[in-house]
Amino acid sequence: MVAKISIGSSLYGALAYNGEKINEGKGKLLATNKIFDGGTGGTDIHRAMEDFKRYMPPLMRTEKPVIHISLNPHPDDRLTDVEMAEIAREYMDKLGYGNQPYMVYRHEDIDRHHLHIVSIRVNENGKCLNNAYNFHRSKAITRELEQKYGLQPAERKQGIGNEPIRKVRVEEGDIKKQVGNVVKTLATRYRFQSMGEYRALLSIYNVTAEEARGEVRGREYHGIVYSATDDAGNKVGNPFKSSRFGKSVGYEALEKRFAVSKQQIKEKNLAEFTSKSVLAVMKRTYDRGVFTAMLKDKGIDIVFRETETGRIYGATFIDHRTGYVLNGSRMGKEFSANALQEHFTLPYAGEKPISLTIPVEQETEDRPVAGDSYEELSGGLGLLSGDSLGSDAQETAFMNEMQRKRKKKRKRRI
Questions:
Q1: Distance of CA 37 to the CA centre of its chain
Q2: Domain tally for the chain?
Q3: How confident is the model at residue 360, as a pLDDT?
Q4: Does residue 283 share a domain with residue 261?
Q5: Element (H or E) spanning 120, and its range?
Q6: 301 and 392 together in one domain
């Protein structure tokens, strides 16, 4: 289990971020301490804010009185709500926050369930609680909880979730190592539902994969063969059997990943976040080049499949923020190959689009922003990087939107 601790100045922002997710059915309120809990699994954000204010003195000696913690069990751990609530309580007790007011939320908006805890880090006199060696203490606590509850052990790896994946460059030599680095990283960091989606993901890193089928001594076998490509998609160098890189990128492992990803995306509607981003860009331009560039700015790559005449017959969206690879047809008719072909070839293609009914400025949930409201004290695991790409990105965007709205209100008062 990995803990990530952030501190900030906006209590309402932290409560609203979690509360709105819960009230939208993307999680539930599991437990509270000194804060009202109606027992419905939902939350009244304004009521929670008022309850917290009773424990926040008017004069404080710190500019960042809010602490926001996410607890991330290993994806293979299966915990009940009661177990997760108890783990959160024990964690807060051992960290020294057992007597503080706090709220424990279970988030279910990505492929693995995890906890968020909102509390305050000041006492009744406004003095900041001791946070010395928080990271080391937190790590010791999570290890202790792993042993007590029989959880999968996890070691924190600095920044692995944000490390860029390098394209294969034949001219740099050691092609096998380059291809291996790409396929092993992609296999753990992304979710895809078919070989086509997997190939689309590989293609942006100059790698391709083919299924190998045959018969040996009367027994059929299925395998995967990987090859490096140039920027035009042409194979270069010798191919490599998947066994050269380990079972995690072989045929059976991919088949399992397809099935798990398909179930997760369908049950939790995980394509919605990506589809909103793509639709917002489609409303702003009919130019294919501009469309592709704007998506890339948002953290989304698109891979087109075309006929020799240039007609689009397929499109796959790769959302690096969430780690999901989605064929356009899976996301909806408006993202299918035919719809995209029409969008880019209509008589008014290339012209300035008609103004949107909903201003673009309101579409903040997928805007790439840099967070400045919170200071990260400890990071997550590479295998848990879905949270940093998805949940944390949404949180940062939410916090910045709250700031923007407050600035607008101040300007109107002036």
A1: 28
A2: 3
A3: 41
A4: no
A5: strand 114-120
A6: no
